Amino acid sequence: MSGVQDQLEIKFRLTDGSDIGPKSFPAATSVATLKESILAQWPKEKVSGPMTVKDVKLISAGKILENNRTVGECRSPLCDIPGGVTTMHVVVQPPALEKGIGIVQDIAQTI
User: Fold this and answer.
1) Domains in the chain: how many in total?
2) Which domain holds residue 75?
3) Which of 3, 23, 30, 60 is the most exposed place for a label (fewest CB within 10 A)?
4) pTM for this one?
5) Which residues neighbour 7 within 8 Å (Cβ) at sequence distance 6 or greater?
6) How far apart are the first and last CA of the chain?
């Protein structure tokens, strides 16, 4: 019985309302590994997908999940129903945004 509870069914909701999954993950799976799975399964027809794990933010139960945490540590007792599917929201932070901030900082330093 504990083997079943150590597995979580997770689907990833993209910003356009489409989903990746659901897929079963062990509770010991790291958030970084979930993000790698998202990168591997990202729909090819979607424009401006994430390039690296750093481009992806996962949100579950209103909290941004940290890469070094495990799925089991991030479980919410209020939202997770045994045998149910957990939905995590995926936000892509484009790398161009970070470059734009660097340019603004460079300009500010020269003024």
Assistant:
1) 1
2) 2-110
3) 3
4) 0.75
5) 24, 25, 26, 27
6) 65
Contacts of 90 (CB under 8 A, 6+ apart): 12, 13, 14, 15, 20, 38, 56, 57, 58, 59
Q: What is the 3-state secondary structure (H, E, C) of the chain?
A: CHHHHCEEEEEEECCCCCEEEEEEEECCCEHHHHHHHHHHHCCCCCCCCCCCHHHEEEEECCEECCCCCEHHHHCCCCCCCCCCEEEEEEEECCHHHHHHHHHHHHHHHHC
Question: Considering only CA atoms, which of 44, 45, 22, 43 is closest in space to residue 34?
Answer: 22
The strand pairing partners of 12, in sequence order, are: 20, 88
Q: Which two tokens stand for residue 72?
A: 């089991």
pLDDT digits (tens, 9 = 90+) for 16-59: 899 999 999 998 999 999 999 999 999 888 877 888 899 999 99
